[in-house]
Automatic annotation (TrEMBL):
It comes from the Eukaryota. SMART domains: JAB_MPN. Signal peptide: none annotated. PROSITE patterns: MPN. PANTHER family: AMSH-LIKE PROTEASE, FI19924P1. Residues 219-232 have a biased composition (Low complexity). One of its GO terms (biological process) is protein K63-linked deubiquitination. This is MPN domain-containing protein. It comes from Caenorhabditis auriculariae.
Amino acid sequence: MSVNKNKPLEAVLLNPDARLRKLADSAELTTLSLQVSIHRYYQGVLDLYKLAVSYLDDRLIERCFVLMYRYCWFCITELPKHPDDAEHESTEKTQARELLNNAVPLTSELERQILIVYEAQAVYYRFAESQRVLLLEDPQAWRLQQETANKRYEELYKEAEEVTVRAGMEMGRVRPLQPEFVDFGPNERPLPQVPTEVTPSKLLLTTREDEPGPSNRHVSSPAVAPGSSGSAFKPIRPAADSQPDESSANSSLSDEAVPEKNYAIPCDLVEKFLKCCAENTKNNIQTCGVLAGRKLRDRYIITHVLVPKQSGTADYCVGQGEEEVSCILDNASLLTLGWIQTNPKSKAHMSPMDFHTQHAYQKIMKESVAVICAPAHDEVTAFTMTPRGMEVLSECKLTGNHPHPETYGELYTTAPHVVWSTDFNSYILDIRD
């Protein structure tokens, strides 16, 4: 086995405590924004909890820990700072507080199990680093012990793998509490059911670069984003001709990087949405909707657009009735995964008010996107805020329509993790009447 003597392994891989702190830090980075309503926050943290539980079911322990840690962080540290929290009463708030009693011990157990795995992996990586140092200081001694060293690599890999599998199995047996069904009353509007032919195996294959977009409209299709959907919760087997690849181990130490092509939108969604808001478009009035769907393994699937009561002009659109929207989506077991809006006359772009809307969604769930439809220019684009954009918007205290000096590519960009799919259909629920 050859070793790159000039490339030391990242120090965090050799220190399990530091590696765990780095993982926890990635969950703490999301702080409160006073421009997001307190009800939207409680709706969002319940979605966080549901996502964390789904990752636990899939035995993606690190991702579960990050989201569960963030859930606890929001509920304990951040939400009480919101000026409306003290007087706010809702079913979502009650559930979030009740689930916290389950989330805190579960997060502690996840932390314990992850540390056990990191310690086993650290032994493996320390041996790799010792081999690198030996090659640097005494190449002849390094060559003489290569047969023994390769056997030791295999032994340490097997030990770390056994620890990893055992931890995953133990956490996979945990059955966390689930949010309860919300009784919205006799006027509740049920969502159409997702057809049974929508299966995980079919949807997970929907990542082709040549997949057509909605109808014949122009859809931005960027290159795949950096990052990996693989979990660091497994040791990296050394290749025969290289040292262990720490980049793979680091790929999911933080969920800051969105996995490539993990967000599927049905191609018929745009046509159905534009048909729904045709009258507003004709009168040069924006229309907005909530993108909702489900998580299947490590993919997010948009299945519904909920068009809420709203008011709008040519330049903005504001949704109303958050409580009704959240109850409908909760009872249908759907997650809020982003939003969609028309720009009746202008091109597909995001305004400063759109920045703040997307910022609110993305603070809670980083995969959230904004789909902007520009029918006059035959354009449809799914946008996401850049890290710089999230930083700028977190510091911005202005409201209403106000300028930001940075533009496309600086504050926001085309969402690199979105794929348009013809494998399933979307459903529109218009509750404006």
